[in-house]
Amino acid sequence: MNRPHHVLIVEDLPDVAQWLRACLQGALAPRRIDHAADLAGARRCLAETGYDLLLLDLGLPDGNGADLIRDFKSARPQAPCIVTTIFDDAEHLFGCLRAGADGYLLKDDTEAEFTRQLTGILDGRPPLSSSIARRLLHQFRSDPRADETPLTPRETDLLTLIAKGLSVKHAARQLNISHHTAAGYLKDIYQKLQVNSRAEAALKAVNLGLVNPS
Q1: 80 and 149, same domain (yes or no)
Q2: For a Cys-Cys bond, which of 68, 70, 139, 177 suits 181, CB 3.0-4.6 Å?
Q3: pLDDT digit string (tens) for 65-79?
């Protein structure tokens, strides 16, 4: 994991912001942690500093925090943007992941669980709180269409490894196929599942029961 040095927390509740700061200090010990309480303040911070990690609340006093995701990822495509929220519904989750968020964590998790999930995301593991992954998995499994998987067995194997955090190169090696073959499979997976990122692909793997969300 590349430890972030400059972190921005966007959170309007002071006690929650302090809790997030404590989680970051305990898990990552970044050199600098800034805080913005609204969209306007966040945009000023982002214009002045090149952050390598953004923790982003959604329900801000002057708008939806999700509006920052695309701008942040456009300016800093390699820097993780992790949503920290109380919204546990699929609409908010999918919207944020499609906008480019690298993770989606619930603030009602325990500090230990939140910290574990945060470091897991930065290590490349599936980008969801265990609690929300379990809820979505339960919701999906109650859908009669859940057994309808458009992937071939080989594509399913690759998706499972990718969702567990392996790179395409390492997944190809484990499956004993070439990197180019694996990349072709991954392209087909994205098209079949109608996803655009590893984060969305990982979520689909959870939904399909290929990866244990805990």
Answers
A1: no
A2: 177
A3: 999 999 999 999 999
